[in-house]
Amino acid sequence: MKSCFAVQQLPELMAEANGLNAAGKKAEAAELYRSALESCPADIDLLYEYGNVLLSLDQLDSAADCFRQALSIDPQDAACTIMLARTLQRLKKPLDALHFYRQGQRLSPQLSVLHLMSGVAAVEAELRDEARSSFTRALEIDPENISARLCLCMMHLNMFSSIEELEAGRSAYARALDNLVRNTRLDNPTYIEAAIEAVGMMSNFFLPYQGCNDRELQKVYGEWLCWIMATRFPDFQNLECHLVPGEKIRIGFVSAHFRDHSVWKIVTRGWMKYLDRDRFMLFGYYAGTDCDAATDEARAFSDVFVCETDVAVLAETILRHKPHVLIYPGLGMDPTTIKLAALRLAPVQCVSWGHPETTGLPTMDYFLSSELMEPTDGDKHYSEELVRLPNLSICYEQLTTTADLPVVTIPGVEKGDTSYLCCQNLMKYLPQHDDVFPAIASRVKRAKFVFIKFSASHADCFSERMRIAFARFGLSSTDHVVFVPPLNGTGYAAMNAVTDIFLDSIGWAGGNTTFESLPFNKPIVTLPGEFMRGRHAAAILRMMGVEETIAADKQDYIDIAVRLGNDRNWCNAVSSRVAENKHRAYGDVTCVRALENFLTSACYKLSYNAVRGHRSQ
Asked: For 249-389, which CATH class?
């Protein structure tokens, strides 16, 4: 009788649960769905709705189980197939997700969004050819699909096998970006919402890895972003800056990285910790979800700390607080902060070098950079006004390292080898510099270059480049090139401890990785590049007064690396100088005082101009 009654009442239960779900009472809706399933465990519609609400509650494993149960009843149910794929994608299981997206493509071949999401999963699974095919199919079905058009544009930013391929990819990106802008429609709410969603699909994060001046390309992209955001949120702007004498200046830090991340460790932490609280009131706006000890620190450093990932809600919160200045420590790594930065939420808006690339955003006024890192002509690399803060521009505090690090052995590196740690993202190693590794190996017996394999496809591409480069020197790359998997903090520190020499990447130098090598006193070989992003390590060494391993050109870079590998006495002497002088790179508050003066000046300059403009009317 209970089961029969429950089946009879199922429409009413479903209606009530759907109403609760629509009203935002998702936990209550989930409980009703669960109760109904006890009596009707084979009802696919009920399983689908229950899985959806579990997904919205971030109960991902339970949601996946729900959709799997539905598919065990009807393997051809397209809706449950697609939702299982989406759930697996959120569980960061792209290959599993892709399996069900492929099945969904067979069941609903004319559904454009399905091909789009399949393409995103293929990117995450490092199957770029399949991704490109899926995005292309999505656009064929729906020529107005701006997300597919954007993803196809960003697909041109990749690891390249040659200089020629890099240049061709960059040109293709420029053409696709122009095509994206020209084909963006914002003349009705549906198109506007589609554009907002597209911005979060894929970013141009890998553009600065190409080693070129990106200002003009970024201006095209930045103006496009601002156009979309201003159309969607026309009333979201704060242009007033009326400082009352004696009033604290309200500074907001907007970041998706208030956690154990290089953006926090390098840029944000020292500024927030040491800004004068008698002069400034600090607001932390966290657009991320992962929380750890760094998040607790950020909260402690803030007068107000807000955690929110919804762009509209966070923008409204910021506007309500009326900050005089917003600082984005790094932009281009997540969709929420770049959307916020494309709005005018404070009269003074600044970005810094957490991602050392100009934003191209008309809404971004200043780029906060380092006097020691910027070349003399650095201003021409930015759409923002460049601010050169003294020294390194940041107040980095020495990390505490585990006293009893595990003793590790690196497969492929044996006793008697000379190991060069090459720990950057493989995208930083440009094809025009592939020859430095065999050039060093040809002069240093048993040289081993230790790279980190962050991406299988990137490692495959780089391995083939190394094979070709070493062959030109009559060498085999397999005798000298070693890959290790990504490591946690302890494992990475242990690897630093057992390698001999830190070999910096040319074009985009190590920032956080350079700092993290200092506790182990390794000699650091670096070649300052054309752009600020290629000069981090050199600036750190200059701050320390250890400049003998800063190369003047590529041949000098090779010669320094060779001498360190062959001359143990000199290598030890450089190591001793690093040990003696590394304290100079830590805890520099000079830049914080300069930042305070800049922020104050920028705010009063706006106030003065506003008053003068009012009086002239």
From this structure: alpha beta
What ranges do the domains of the chain cover? 249-389, 418-585
* Rounded (to 5) percent helix, strand, coil in the chain: 55, 10, 35
Q: What dotted CATH number matches 418-585?
A: 3.40.50.2000
HSE, side-chain direction, 13 A CA sphere, residue 406: 10
Please say whether the beta carbons of 229 and 320 come within 8 A. Answer: no
Question: Looking at this protein, which amino acid is placed at residue 252?
Answer: G
pLDDT, tens digit (0-9, with 9 covering 90-100), for 225-276? 999 999 999 999 876 767 777 889 999 999 999 999 999 999 999 999 999 9
The answer to whether residue 91 scores a pLDDT higher than 90 is: yes
**Triad 609, 615, 617: Cα angle to 5°:** 105
Strands 249-255 and 280-286, sheet pairing: parallel
| pLDDT one-digit tens code per residue, 6-50 | 455 667 777 777 777 777 788 888 888 788 888 788 888 889 888
User: Hey, what amino acid is at 282?
Assistant: L
Sign of the Cα torsion 152, 156, 157, 160 reads positive
Residue 266 near residue 511, CB atoms below 8 Å: yes
Q: What is the pLDDT of residue 18?
A: 77
Sign of CA pseudo-dihedral 116, 120, 125, 126: positive
Using pLDDT thresholds of 50, 70 and 90, give the confidence band for residue 402. Answer: low
Residue 203 tokens read as 């970013």
What's the one-letter identity of residue 433? H
What does the pLDDT average to over 506-514? Answer: 95
| Cα–Cα nearest to 440, from 479, 495, 413, 409 | 479
Q: What is the largest CA-CA distance in the chain?
A: 89
